[in-house]
Automatic annotation (TrEMBL), chain A:
Its cofactor is [4Fe-4S] cluster. This is DNA polymerase. Residues 21-31 have a biased composition (Polar residues). The keyword Translocase does not apply. Residues 138-213 form the DNA polymerase delta/zeta catalytic subunit N-terminal domain. Heterodimer with subunits of 125 kDa and 50 kDa. The 125 kDa subunit contains the polymerase active site and most likely the active site for the 3'-5' exonuclease activity. NCBIfam families: pol2 (TIGR00592).
TrEMBL record, chain B:
One of its GO terms (biological process) is mitotic DNA replication. It catalyses: DNA(n) + a 2'-deoxyribonucleoside 5'-triphosphate = DNA(n+1) + diphosphate. Belongs to the DNA polymerase delta/II small subunit family. Heterodimer with subunits of 125 kDa and 50 kDa. Its EC number is 2.7.7.7. Pfam families: DNA_pol_D_N (PF18018), DNA_pol_E_B (PF04042). Gene3D superfamilies: 2.40.50.430, 3.60.21.50. This is DNA polymerase delta small subunit.
Amino acid sequence: MNRSNGSARKRPPRTPKESWPNKQQATTPTTPVIDDEFLDEDVFLDETLLPEDEESLILRDIEQRQDFASRLAKWARPPLSSAYVSQRQSIMFQQLDIDYVIGDSNRELLPHSSGPAAIIRIFGVTREGHSVCCKVHGFEPYFYISCPQGMGPDDISRFHQILEGRMREANRNSKVPQFVRHIEMVQKRSIMYYQQQKSQPFLKIVVALPTMVASCRGILDRGIQLDGLGMKSFMTYESNVLFALRFMIDCNIVGGNWIEVPVGKYRKTAKTLSYCQLEFDCLYPFAWRYSDIISRHPEGEFSKMAPFRILSFDIECAGRKGHFPEPTHDPVIQVANLVTLQGEKQPFIRNVMTLKSCAPIVGVDVMSFETERDVLLAWRDFIREVDPDVMIGYNICKFDLPYLIERSQTLGIAEFPILGRIRNSRVRVKDTTFSSRQLGTRESKEVTVEGRVQFDLLQVMQRDYKLSSYSLNSVSAHFLSEQKEDVHHSIISDLQNGNAETRRRLAVYCLKDAYLPQRLLDKLMFIFNYVEMARVTGVPISFLLSRGQSIKVLSQLLRKAKQKNLVIPNVKQAGSEQGTYEGATVLEARAGFYEKPIATLDFASLYPSIMMAYNLCYSTLVTPEDARKLNLPPECVNKTPSGETFVKSNLQKGILPEILEELLAARKRAKADLKEAKDPLEKAVLDGRQLALKISANSVYGFTGATVGQLPCIEISSSVTSYGRQMIEHTKKLVEDKFTTVGGYEHNAEVIYGDTDSVMVQFGVPTVEAAMKLGREAADYISGTFIKPIKLEFEKVYYPYLLISKKRYAGLYWTNPEKFDKMDTKGIETVRRDNCLLVKNLVTECLHKILVDRDIPGAVQYVKSTISDLLMNRMDLSLLVITKGLTKTGDDYEVKAAHVELAERMRKRDAATAPNVGDRVPYVIIKAAKGAKAYERSEDPIYVLENNIPIDTHYYLENQISKPLLRIFEPILKNASKELLSGDHTRSISISTPSNSGIMKFAKRQLSCIGCKALISNGTLCSHCKGREAELYCKTVSQVQELEVLFGRLWTQCQECQGSLHQDVLCTSRDCPIFYRRKKAQKDMAEAKLQLDRWNF
Amino acid sequence: MEIDGEEARLQRKQATYIFLDEPFEIQKETYRGQQYSQIYFARLHLMRALLYSLVPNWKPHLPICTVLELEEGRECVIIGTLYKHMKLKPSILDEYSKERSTTPLVKPHNFMHPDDHLVLEDESGRVKLGGAELLPSAYVTGIVVALHGKETSAGEFLVLDVLDAGLAPQKELPLNSGEDKYVVLVSGLNVGSGTSNPLQFQLLVDHITGHLGDEKEQGIAAEIVHVVIAGNSIEIPRGLLNGQNLASKDQSRLFEPIKELDILLTQIAAGVPLDIMPGPNDPANFSLPQQPLNRCLFPGSATYNTFRSCTNPHCFELDNVRFLGTSGQTIDDLQKYSEANDQLEFMERTLRWRHLAPTAPNTLGCYPFTDRDPFLVESCPHVYFAGNQQKFETRLLKGSDRQLVRLVCIPKFSETGVAVVVSLCIFSGMLRIIKGTGLTQKSQHNFQVCLFFMHHTHFIVAWDRNWGGLKFRSCLALQCFSTMINGVFLMVKQKIIWWSMPILLIFKR
């Protein structure tokens, strides 16, 4: 039921922020936010498993549920071929999830070790669709420290002893026989700063368990007493790498790629621990010195996707009136499931599990149960039998999964939460606080379902798209052009308490909620895009959603560093000690309405190119101290405009430039392949890849600038922006110097605006074609003056172009001289959610009139008539609805806010339908006593409709539409404010809506003439208006006609969305554009009918 | 009945008229928040009872089940309302929610698409229909049918055979009295529009009232016992009705066409009983059933008791011959959402489905009835007409139960100048068309005036712009014609009177 009233449920309290420090944002000082917490958490296998006595209970339970299991058996995965069974075939699978668990080290594979050890588990699917659990033994967590000077190989064993002792002190309760497995001296080099010597001695410290990396790091950070050296603290290197990622890097495995384990290199596990069809053990290749696990590069055959199983599900809960469902009180009444094989168009399983009987649904397997316990257990059995690799849904991570788990705890069903792939292992729920610069701080629950990737479409949407609403309804309307019926959560319980038919209604609704995420997944190619992103950046797929941006860059950096024998220091996250730096330049905007074509010159991936061109990297940075000491010849170094020194690539090629080069080259390749590709699935993969590569290339700069990131380096990021500024200025100068009448051109070129990586030039020529020619010429000419690969490209012409101010402009976008491509707007598109729709419509329409129709008087006229309509109360109410999310209750807000006050008032009226925390509250501003505060004048739109409450039209004029309008018109009109916002049209006599409040309470209603409103005692018309019957009747009837058309279309549309003709529409989706209109049409129709009936005398 | 001339007076014939519009009248019903589900429910309920009674004869061996009770692979009969899923069907949501695009949306006249598919729905659920037996192109949303078929593994219902309700039982046709009696059916007068020609309408009126022609012609006129105007009589300038008070100039612009119509209708009503139905363009409500045009629009004609303002659809009996018809919206809507060879086929289908307006309320505006569906055809009419069609078409439809129905498409008078005359002994070639002067934009030079009688006389007159080119072809009785070329010729009894512009019309009484 979760999203019963749509928007709310599926939305976290915070709206996502703009992306993290990207080029645009660097202008503002970056505030310290911890991007990710990189902490491993050891999970002991024994702890996750159920105790013996409970296990027998489960066995009993399984026996009892034989009947049900056989019903599900037909959905099981394809049976293993004999080659697999007899282990005569190498196992090739696409891995989707990698984790580790602590278990006893495997005696057979590792005869020499004992005690607990980390076992890597790789879950995946073979080409035939078999599920795989590959357990890798012998991989041990480690990190580096720089070897103190004077410490030789002989001193290591002493150091080992001391460290072991300190570790033992710190972890008294642990039963691990040996904490520090071994320490060896290796020759490495730190990535930080340009160094002339090739390598230095480092100590590689291998510890027993992954969590011990952190505790050991702590000890070394604080310092330990060493013989002869005294108290010494150590800088650690690569001590913040998650264990699973460490494994992937060392094995050269990237997220979502194919892995091959050849025959003879694996052993079938004797006592299987998982539900996977192929469960086997193998050894970490390092110990064997040759590959046991072959990681396949995702190319050709290996770029394909395995037929993994995607489960899309949704649950419904019966809430109590006035409360959002809580797992401690409210039962789970339905679970709808759809299972699709990756690559197939239609789901092959559709079912719904309901509490109490439910009438059948065609094409859907309806399973009804008498108790909630049976519903939950049936779902568990279903999961186990179908064995999905990916679980999707809308807000499943924050709502559906935690709810199911907590509900089972409340009901005391200990055997329920075995949803993962590990036999008898419970799902773990963890409260997490996830904070990222990009997404803000979120408190949530993390449910770990071992071996199954969770892909919450809500999270994806919030990450990838900027939308005005993230409710499933509006997201599907946006991407699928499909609305869904929105049943208010107060109705859900009623439907549940009805009969099999009403519950069927609910089930259909629930199924649709499960179906839409699947549709979104297919339509937006998320599987392809995310798998490709994982492949490009090398992180597991699950990291992409649950973690921030920086781990992606870090993963690439670590991989590259490993190749180059470099190690990455773990810089302490010490807040924003490092200063801020100057961001990108924005050239002064010469605001105005340009009716000549404006050519736009863009730097293609400016920041990555700068980093490549000037070899900016951690490993090429020369500290001021070193600069003096090393005395590098000036031809070998670049001094950046911000004053930093970097060596040129002939001395030392930087790692970041190398990563970037590879990314961009790979993107070029992917784009070329994309052109060649015929197969739509292959195309999808390649397109996803080129997109992932582009995003990755652009996020490298941000990684260096994230002051509290993994490896911030302000020297790099400030140099990048300073070069960027220089280039913009340089371009401006060159354009204005070269393209002049003196230089033989027709007009003097003028740079009217420049922003970060683009420069807008007015060449003065009147046609798009001529502007394009000059634009190309300028781009080629100026590109020649830059170091490769920095390149200025000519892409588009704006014509006409309305420049309002910095970062605010609109124009028609031309890439070929025949026809414009689209209308492009920036900064003025009022997609902000707290504006009413009227603003958006008005602005869009005005821009359309100004830019496309070239009709400024028309636009002015349109504004005037809209204002006049508004003031005369002829505006459709739904255009005036303002929506805000209710994040906490009224008392918690410091300042009184309109929507909060309204929610309180609504609660007093009817607690059952009042908005709850997390809901979005729609309201309109109504007329009230003079001096009333804005927050007191908010009212529920439905209440306004039902009670004919007058709208405060002046509020809308002054507080909503005037600012955006003036912004657009100021560059165009001289006295925009005077012209638009005052004058005849604002003096229109407003037709007051009849009101039941104030003085109207005392007024007596009397019959009035339809023609002239004169009071009459009976009949329809006064004596003066007699003879005008036909005319007046036509007027009345034409109103009725309009309303009838509207009424019919609106209500049949709702039937359409609902998918049923014979049942009443229940939907209360306030996000739906016709919700208020529908309500209003119904009410107006009744009134108009009464008016019309007055003529039947 | 006054007839011009000194010959013996002709007596206009009479017929007994029974008014059967009650089901279409909305009296006390109001909008109280009811939705459209009820009308579908009522329709399904009534039609299902009917189909239940037919199935034992149709597929005696098959069980009848609901959508819910379907089992994969089992053959059975299901009864329910069809829903046609249409890709191109315009949605009001798009108008509200879509961004304004730079290219205007193309509005097709027909919203069919090869991907359209049908769904059968009853109270219990929906099932997608498959198979070649049931072509989506011939069906629309809202029809109740019985289907024989079975559920496939994909959850579809494979249709093997279709049963629609078929023609409703028909009252026996009265014995032919040997007398010729005629009913004039006309639609699309569009008084006040650019296409309407006042003279043409006047000719029609004169013809009906017997002010034209010789004795023989007048004799025919005297046999006209009833006139039905099937919608779109007035075209009022809609732009004026924007909620503002009207300037007096605009008041008269609005009022003029109404007055003009009233004057002409008064002439008819003075001689012949007249039924006027509202149409989609008339000043009446929009939703079906359209309620009678208000009498205040007809201050002159409404005073006659022969004048009757009726609903659309309209049903009546004349000498026990049952007439049923609409102003054409029902057929036009079917044309938008389905396909047929001609308009008559659409009309035939509605009779077979036993529903006048299956697409209401889905795509055709309709009042949200709560307890009934007035559009169900309970008794099969003898004459079934649809107004405001592109051209005149007619066919005799024979039902399986010896029903005989005369289907008539009445063309738009203002565009074609054709009125249809139906004899009450409808099955003996008793249909004729009065074609008035058709001065259309296309044929300003060579146009034809024809009076075309299917079994009486047959003459065509062609007038050229140049007077000398006047030709008579198979001219039997040139009595009185009037027409207009760059002015007005009015020819009465072979006397030619010429008026120059502006047009003045003089009527002799």
